Amino acid sequence: MLRMMGRCLIVIxxxxxxxxxxxxxxxxxxxxxxxxCAGRVEVLHRGQWGTVCDDFWDLxxxxxxxxxxxxxxxxxxxxNAHFGQGSGxxxxxxxxxxxxxxxxxxxxxxxxxxxxCDHSKVAGVICSExxxxxxSRCSGRxxxxxxxxxxxxCDAVFDQQDAExxxxxxxxxAPVQVLGAxxxxxxxxxxxxxxxxxxGNESQIHLCPTSxxxxxxxxxxxxIGLLCTDIRxxxxxxxxxYCAGRVEVLHRGQWGTVCGAGWDLxxxxxxxxxxxxxxxxxxxxxxxxxxxxxPILIKNAMCxxxxxxxxxxxxxxxxxxxxxxxxxxxVICSExxxxxxSRCSGRxxxxxxxxxxxxCDAVFDQQDAExxxxxxxxxAPVQVLGAxxxxxxxxxxxxxxxxxxGNESQIHLCPTSxxxxxxxxxxxxxxxxxxxxxKxxxxxxxxxCAGRVEIHHRGQWGTVCQEDWDMxxxxxxxxxxxxxxxxxxxxSAHFGQGSGxxxxxxxxxxxxx
Length: 513
Hints:
Layout: H1 2-5, E1 19-20, E2 27-32, E3 38-45, E4 48-52, H2 59-68, E5 74-78, E6 90-92, E7 108-109, E8 124-127, E9 130-133, E10 139-146, E11 149-153, H3 160-169, E12 175-179, E13 190-192, E14 195-196, E15 210-211, E16 225-228, E17 234-238, E18 244-251, E19 254-258, H4 265-274, E20 280-284, E21 296-298, E22 330-333, E23 336-339, E24 345-352, E25 355-359, H5 366-375, E26 381-385, E27 396-398, E28 401-402, E29 416-417, E30 431-434, E31 440-447, E32 450-457, E33 460-464, H6 471-480, E34 502-504
Parallel strand pairs: 4-6, 11-13, 19-21, 25-27, 33-34
Antiparallel strand pairs: 1-7, 2-3, 3-4, 3-8, 5-8, 9-10, 10-11, 10-16, 12-16, 14-15, 17-18, 18-19, 18-22, 20-22, 23-24, 24-25, 24-30, 26-30, 28-29, 31-32, 32-33
């Protein structure tokens, strides 16, 4: 229930209706930067250029602008009139792009000339002026944007220091290999023949000096290609293991933190998925694993839980900077998962040294099963199955004996010992079926379809705060319980206060969950 309701996709915060801008002819430009691909965002409406308010402005919005201008990938989404305030009207406010739109006009917003900010809060964008083509996100033929034209680069004018900068600018880690001789095809662009002279520590290629090259014979046969490491851009720091800790993200070569304000299980789910760490167990917005010392790179993350990376989630500019000073996003991911069945049934795998391992049926018992089902929020164990009931899999085998008492909240809290079972193979993989208990209930009413809303999380029932609670959220609950349509959405503890923790403080559903 927490994954379904705890963070329904935010499309409304301070406004009641989000509308789409549908003007027939809308142009966008970047003003006040070092090139046409960096600057203050301005849009053309009714024959006049105006700015965009930075409320809700994030990398998804920046990605649309960069795409519309054919400026590569977004490097930064900037706030607070970074490139100057501009002088025209503020045409757009509360822009909320999904990131896939072809133009900024196709993104949701308040509407034209409807704003809640002044010129000190206009949005800016920096797009990358390099891209890798013909490979993956972090590998391919190098192209540089020059005078509004993408150009291939001659292998004679590019070296390892230049590669360091390109990989950093694209958030792709370090260079693995610099390839000449058109390793990623010849392409059909013009040729860039100036010699690039990076020191290797620059954040963007346009900051590197260039000089006229003596190589006059460059052709597409000499296109440079590049392989970067494509490292993960998120990590968990200061926890008990790789899958627990303070959330840090890598941006333009620097690690920074994520503000804990509004951080929830949907955001945590994306981090756990990105790190291949199973399901989220807890999402904290405090200093549980420390506050960190780097810059706060993401404020008010707004994931719907299905994104592949944290950087693909929406976010918003925090209106009160102080709210982030003592709040840093923290995550605990599960170190167990069930594979080959449903959410709460399947072949058991345990994460050890960043590797998922199958478990031998000889080292696992009912008490261990109690803990696994509890950790996955799946109720009680129904059946423990040996003999590879859910398939053999192809992972390494975990052969240590797990010695849970049965009341632990996570499997990593259980002691282990060396097993005498040396003959474990994939034919002996353990499987597990948990009850998958209902995660929402109505308590204190005159039937199972009326009452105080309670949700089940980490083995305990708790309540939901009434803030922003309305018929949309009530409709999701009624649907989940098979109770038809909602009649009323009540607050003020109408059915009693309950005694458990308040698991969810703000519920913002779209109604389709």
